[in-house]
Sequence to fold (914 residues):
Amino acid sequence: MSVLLEADAVTRRFGGLTAVNEVTFSVEEGAAVGLIGANGAGKTTLFNCLTGFDKPTSGDVRLRGKSLLKMARHKVVKSGVARTFQIVKPFPDLPVLANVMVPLIAGGTKGDLRVQAMGVLDRVGLAHRAASPSSQLSEGDLKRLEMARALATKPQLLLLDEPFAGLSVAEIGVLSDTIRQLRADGTTLIVVEHKIGSLLQLVERVVAMDQGAVIADGEPQAVMRDPAVVTAYLGGEATTHEQH
Amino acid sequence: MDVLVQGALTSAVIALVALGFSLVYGVGGIVNLAHGSFFMIGAYSAYAMSETGAPLLVSAVVGVLAATLAGVLLERLVITPIRHQEVAVLIATLAVAILVQSGVQFFYGGLERQLPGFVSGAVTVFGVTLQQTRVLAGLVALVTIVTVLLVLTRTPTGRMVRAVAQDEEASRLIGVRPERVTLYVLAIGAGLAGLAGVLTAPYGVLTPTMWLLPLTQAFAIVILGGLGSIPGTVLASVVVGFLDRFVAFNVKDGDIKVGLVTVAVILATLVLRPQGFLGKVAR
Amino acid sequence: MTSTKVAEQPAAPSDGGSGRPSPLKRLLRPNPLILLALPIVLLYLPRFVDNTTLLQQIAVATIFVMFAASWDILSGYTGQVNFGHAAFIGTGAYTVALLSKYQPDVSNELALLAAVGAAALLGLLIGIPCLRLKGPYLALATLSVAGALVQLTFIFKTQTGGEDGIAGVKTVIDGSLTNTIGEGLSKLVLGPLTFSGLGGFDQYIYVSYFVTLVFMVVMVGGLMLLGYGKRGLVLRSIQQDELAAEAAGVPLTRYKLGAFVLSAACAGLAGGLYAQVRGTVALDLLAVDLSLLIIIIAAFGGAGSIIGPAIGAYVVVLLQNYYLDRATDLFVEHPELKIGTFALLLIIVLIVQPRGIVPPLLQRLSGRGSATRAAGATMVEGGGAKP
Fold:
């Protein structure tokens, strides 16, 4: 397995606050990695740095050895990194199908875009809502739409920011199946999630963060037993607040 | 020296307009494209009163009151119903500006008008000879601004206004009603702009399109100083005021190039530092 | 990697002929009947209407259709609402007028091209600083630029004529292309003999009428093809949520700046043509009144559809220049009251029915403003999901 993504001493400061501190890790091709941590641990900021939506104060992010830092956001997407947002960002007045056509158009996809967009919607189980305005979707369907739009960029690496937040148990089950299918199709995944139980069924590796730094990295069960992780989860909640 | 003294006087008058514009943005998140119209309403109302033979001082007071009333009406009738729809507020207030322009043109025609001076003759300050009306305008503006700043920083009312400007939700929690504060600030801002209109009426010219330049200058000041920042507004007013006079004195046909320079300042600021030179990141 | 299983899927719902058109269909395709009927009706109208004053005003309205449509491709589509569209129109018009005054040898066609170029350049110059601007900043910046151009005409008063403007601009009759189109269509619709029998001024009106119609159909047709095609969809996505569009791989700068320049270029062409139709240019072509009138037109016709503002332009401009004058003498004596009336109507519509009369524009204007404002500087989550 070759390395797909490398974060090299990524640091992001906002004024006096260090949201991400010297984070270094790499993700192998085809892997599925969970990213956990209390609110304010720096997960979303790290996500933004990895996907070009934020520039690290120092450090480097490389995809197959090539730095992503100097790239415009759409170039990062073009080079194969896609993301979803913690709070879904559909194009609300556009129908579901059109939402998925936008990344296809932007990616210069040839052929019948509707058919291809339907194909992507099918992968996330949203084909039956293709014609609905996306403002009419349920929260669970919006998460799917968000994922479909990311998938339509044909990513090698997909970063999911809290895909299960706000979903019912049943919805989580269905979405988990979808995500497992993506993996089976060969997409590399990094998933931020607070619902640890559901997350652990999807990933074979977990990176835990606290106060901007990586405190544990490895097998899910080992990471969850790590004393630092236990402390961070039980003790850290009240002292920090989430960075957006 | 010419430029320094005149620049100071001009700055004070410009700050009078910009302060209200900035406060209204800071407090209500409202960008009022009809703000320049208050300036015009002040000037034309004073002119109208003086035409009826009323004493100048009475005319001036009427001018300021008319602008204040216009501010109240604008807030109650137009802005309140659409307060949270940013672009709708922009369009509606621009429509108000054009409506006022069309009304002024209807009553007074497109011709240039001028208010008689409150004082006449010239005065020499630091070896610079100045029209007394300009000096009076600058001094009154200066005193007014200092008063407004003192009220803002030293009184409970002022603190309430600044609290809303900083965090509307938080101020709601401590019992302040932001809607009410918006009304006050808009009324006062309109009155200040009206006062500026009255003060400059004797040496400026009154035309139905005179609202645009003060609006542009207020905008330049506000982006230079950072939207909603009071010290930024005052400092930027000084910059724009001096620039205004500098251009007027040192460039051929300077008086008509003032607006152009203002726009250049705006565009340059937007390119170099969209958050303004003094303000925090625009909200 | 992407395993599509289209075969198992029913065809995209919008393709089926199942009664009620789907939202997608409605979004992506306007009613083609109206689109075809409009130019044909307008083409043959002079056969049945011989009121040349009315025809002249329809020609002017046709120009305004181009103003409004060119505004819409930027403001209605990407949501960068331009409050100073007159800057582009005036730049085009003054370019043509100045060329006609100082370089009378330059052909009318070349002058129009120059108008396009000048306006496009201005669009680029304003577009770059405006890229990062939202709502109020963009409004004030565009408004100020138009104001600055008015000042420029005063500074170069000897050349531009200041308040008096420039008269004696070479008209559509003087241009070989425009005259050929205009005369050809006049003879086609009216019959060659009828046209030749007309007086010079009437001929000029008919030529103007048909030339503006042809330019309008080409421009509006082109903008609609763009707006209802793939690129239009991308432009809409930008308006809905810029960050999401970027996450979808949209090159934001290219599209936003492209829309700015295209909008400016089209406005410049229409402005230049207007100068050749009127034979004069004046400050009304740069004034805030004109910029607001275009917003009014778009607001009544529905922004973000090209065709909506186009139809709105006919209604508003014919009211303004023809029907209101015939309704009461007040408007003849005080033409400034017309824009005032429209402004008042607009204010009332915005207050009373912020979503109703003009759904497409106002839907966007409502509610999401603050989220759009927040989205620019930082990664503030929660933009635009719910109205």
Summary: The beta strands of chain A are 3-14, 17-28, 32-36, 58-63, 66-67, 81-83, 157-161, 188-192, 205-210, 213-218. The domain at 3-89+155-235 of chain A is CATH 3.40.50.300 (Rossmann fold). Chain A is about 35% helix and 25% strand.
